[in-house]
Amino acid sequence: MPLRDPHSFANLSQGRITHIDFDIQVDFTRKELAIEATYAFDQPIHDAFFLDTRALTIERIYTGERDLAWELDKQDPILGERLHVRKLDSATEMTIELRTAPGSTALQWLTPKQTAGGEHPFLYSQCQSIHARSIFPCQDTPLVRFTYHAKMQVPPPLIGVMAAASLGVEDQTGRRIHSFAMKQPIPSYLFALAAGDLAFKKLGPRTGIYAENETIDAAAWEFAENEQKLKLGEGLFGPYLWERYDAIVMPPSFPYGGMENPRLTFMSTIFIMGDRSWTSIISHELAHSWTGNLVTNASWEHFWLNEGWTVYAEMRITEALEGRDVADLETVIYGKILQEELELFGMQSPITCLKTSLEGIDPDEVFSRIPYYKGFLFIRQLEHAVGRERFDAFTKKYIQTFQFQSLTSEGFVTFLEKELPQAFDHVDVQAWIYAPGLPEGALDLNSSLHDDALDACEQYLQGKPLSKQQITKWRSGQVYAFLLALPERITAEDCAVLDALFEFESQWNCSLRTMFLVLGIRSGYREIMPRVERFVQTFGRGTYLTKIFRNLVAEHWTRPQVRPLFERIRERHHPVVITNLEKMLANANL
Length: 590
Ligand code: BES
Ligand code: ZN
Hints:
Neutral Protease, domain 2, Immunoglobulin-like, Zincin-like, alpha+beta, binds ligand BES, binds zinc ion, 38% helix, eight-stranded mixed β-sheet
């Protein structure tokens, strides 16, 4: 049976896109990209060709000298509009001229005020999962891979970057033209570009970092270990096939922590902590260079293959660099987060299965940590079943066998049956992948660092105060564990005590700050509201905003403030995050 992706209008029996030549003009005044894209196909296209689009203005489609007839003949609130190009008549290439909409769901156009420098605008794209189609018409499914060349024109002094090899830059009066090539075939969701007043610093022979001038030095210091991580990754997962590994720091409204765009990880500025305490973001996004970018989920129903494997790979890097104790602590925390998420959806909810059925469901709407951490614990069990040595050999073979291909959960099981049949004696593979909730014993995890934090929490709850001394050496995972172990609500006085003890705002990362804000909201700690407001004004990471707003909606005392607060921030953050929050508020009749 041919593979089908419920999130694409593409019909692969018509043929596939294999290469695209882009000419992209970035227009900050109109908040639009003007694009000319020339597509090459893997075979002559007999007659019709279907492409995914969303809110694009198509100006012209032609092949050679011949204009092609087209129409947007299907509309879907999740998938967008199907572009039906007619009578290709065995053409092997075609060109589309188009413009993106100012509200393109793949783009965020930031005003100078929303940047660190405050003087120049900033633009970035975020295509995962199904947003590439709101930049250019494509077979927007991870089943299709293509190479590309791009010319990208930006207004100087801005610099344009893409998740591709840079071929150089040409400065003409009033415009700057960058050239890029992506020689390795990528799925559409890994197409990425950004433009801003950027600086670059070299980190190592194959690694470097882009950021605004204001943050470049801090960023370069924070991520100085990237080259070492890259080598470590090669040792664990096999050759790095993307040549370079650079990263670019995104403004605080970036909707994710990081995004594994090939050769160029996009990551939020929140990870620049000044003490290298939160560089696990790079371990994760770098690991995607193998798990996700080489071996790619066949559709978003198999998302766990990307993220579960990547969290496993991330943890291997953490263990190698920071030791077993730290990896164990992180593992327990991931288990706790998983448990919370499972309870939120309900243990029997089909969305808690690793392999999901997403027909008619927007992947953005069901995004959760379940595929990440349930997937991770599953892979970890497979490792334990056969021992690390054999599992490491399996991992390398897995990546090599499926590199530059798309894989389904079924394809994975078949490979596992062939390569590691013994694993099935110890692990209920079917239950892990196809059953909701969690197999028994899945959360039997131990960490002594975690136990220390739990002991401290117990002590605190019994009325014995904690000293600063006691917590100075704590890792963020331990603070996380401490906060998780507290009752849902504490007294406002206790909130003040903990705040003074931990100094959340100045000492800890945004995830911990979010947890404390949520605790304050639940506990009726009124002093917290100005901080909540400042936080949600500044940071656009979806997981934070969702958590904070969910709690603001749920508590009586904050509920009346939610709609006005949301209206004050809606212009600042990413369209996808804002849409999700809007739905949450509407569901709560707010
Ligand atoms: N690929 C994801 C981000 C993503 C997933 C974007 C689905 C859009 C749709 C990225 O690798 C990721 O997992 N980011 C995490 C980082 C974390 C797990 C370290 C994030 O942003 O929260
Ligand atoms: Zn990821």
